[in-house]
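Practice problem: predict the structure.
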Amino acid sequence: MTAALTAENLNKYFHEPEEFRVLQDISFNINKGEFVPIIGKSGCGKSTLLYLLSTMDTDYTGLITINGQQVTGLSQNDLALFRNRHIGFVFQFHFLLPEFTALENVMLPALKLGRWDKAETEERALQQLRQLEMEPFARQLSGKLSGGQQQRIAIARALINEPMIIMADEPTGNLDSGNTKLVFDIFSRLAHEKNITVLAVTHDLDFAKHADRVIEMKDGRIVVPDA
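Answer:
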């Protein structure tokens, strides 16, 4: 299978208030079209790892390769462009603009990238909302929608630039069990039908156990290696 993401010997230190090694010799591969949660107790380093893999933190040693391109060592401008083109982000807090409609929120990353004109961007955004059964709410203000609806809008926003990988940080942390299952089903469908790689940090073991495989962390190390 083709590797979508490779981490080689990643190490990360925090220097304040004293030096602390938060990630220790992290190495693994994620294949294209895999749905892989990262689990572990609070403080184990899983969110820090995701932040490195997302290219938003460059203060580490080791190598990260995404979609065949080594991203370690790229300039901040090149990394920002790479993220917008290749990585979609979903967070525990959806970070939608409440004064914007659902459609406008989904369009924002594509307008920033500038790959399509506004009319095509709007149609693509509607397509994403449609596949997540959110098109009827496209013209409603995102701040007026439920938590589950807002998270689906956030997923549509993450997909608008046709990323090859979705990185999610506690994507179901604020959702009830019904909406948690819905988000799981969406991620599973994206991986297995759309061939989009999904890497999700989560505390929810029920969410994680039905994915393709699980990476477990403890004290900055992987304790269940990929297989």
